[in-house]
Amino acid sequence: MLQRRLNQRYWLALLLLATVGLLMHISFWSIPASDLMGEDIYYIWLEGKRIIAGENPYARVLASDMRANDKYATYFPLAYLVSALVQKLGLPTFLDWLYLWRPLSFFFHLGIVALTLKYFYRRGLWLFGFVAAAILLLGRWSLYITRVHHLEFAAIFFLLLSLVLLRAKPRLALLAFSLSLGIKQIAIFLLPLYLIYFWVNGDKDRRIKDVAWGFLIILSIPVLTSLPFLLWNAEGFLKSIMFSATRLGSSHIDGAPSLDVILSQDLPWLVGLKAKLLMLALVGLVYLSFWREKIGILAATALVMMVFLYFNSVLFLQYFLWPLSLTLLALVERVPPLAPQRQL
After folding, report:
1. Cα 293 to Cα 200: distance, rounded to the nearest angstrom
2. Report field, pTM of the whole predicted structure over 0.90
3. Residues 144, 275: Cα–Cα separation, whole Å
4. How many CA atoms lie within 13 A of 249 on its CB side?
5. Is 280 a member of any domain?
6. What domain count does the chain have?
7. Could you list the residue range(s) of the whole structural domain that residue 225 is in?
8. Could you report the per-residue pLDDT of 263-284, keeping only the tens digit for each?
């Protein structure tokens, strides 16, 4: 009886949030396709069109200076390949692509909310969990992503799914993380944390094997989808993927430049990969802390993504949702779940 009551409470809360979320998403579905042609979702569709036409989406970067952006293909190929497949299946226009992506984006967004809600509810934190889920559903960064139709909801959903499954179903968790990277590789900085997790928590006699298998599973989707493009034009592919690390930073959200952008005004050599050294050093300290100081993996992932947000040269509004979604879970990471007979 108690378990049924807890389940009912969870599903009622999720139904309420889903209804509000759907209304919010639908309110943005009326945005004309022409108004979204400057957004990433359009260029993902366009790269799919180029693949169908026999063009390599990663070759254009070879004519660049690796600084100024001209909407180069900087993601791993999974999204571009899905776009090409959708067009080949009979949905060739950008508007067709939006008709498919809009409901998918909503379901991934709802998945983030559901995972967060359940994580809190399993710990008996009903009100706290509802507020956390509502922030991820209706907060300003989620509204922005909904309006511009970015890939964040899908990538973050599989990242959160990976983290909540890591202890009980590690192989499935690693595959979910691989899928997150395949969609959008922002969480690539978390890869060492997964390997450290298996090293620290695994059987001493199987550590090397577990870490090696974990590494292979994590890389599986990005590598397998990238192989055709590496064979097609390795230089173009590698430079496109690396472009995010070398591009100009001052042209995005000028009112909040990162430290390296400010310093580069007097130190013109402090650009590109050299400008990332402070960020990488701080991320490395988080890795060391996770290995030596026994902090939780949610706290470690949240802090790594926070370092990325605060110190990366380039800042986009959609980046804010990454550390936020992890931080909310990390807040209650040390709160033990309810006894098994009372869990959802």
Report:
1. 11
2. yes
3. 28
4. 27
5. no
6. 1
7. 9-250
8. 877 787 777 778 789 999 999 9
